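Quick one:
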Amino acid sequence: VQLVESGGGLVQAGGSLRLSCAASGSAFEDYAIAWFRQAPGKEREGLSCISTTDGTSWQTASVKGRFTVSSDSGKNTFYLHMNNLKPEDTAVYYCAADPMTRCLVSLQQLLPRLYNSWGQGTQVTVSS
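Output:
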């Protein structure tokens, strides 16, 4: 499985970006596709997840209402739509995938260790 993120960049606070995750190497049936981010000096944070089994999704509280996930199954491409961006959203954003029928959340967190396939990351910088 290969994952390639794109769509990052520099945006002003209050702006929007759409990140893409192009996936290959599998049919991606019954997969969980997750988005994480990591800011300098901080732990990797799980943001959102979508299940390719039934399309259900989950977002962490800090981005709920601002970030959403979607998928284009025909293209095996997954998206993270980010609105009303804030300077604290500045980080490298990663997509990750693993064969799971649903997004597993523990104590309101996505667990990076559950995902075996990762993209290289894309930088998002939000200026104030």
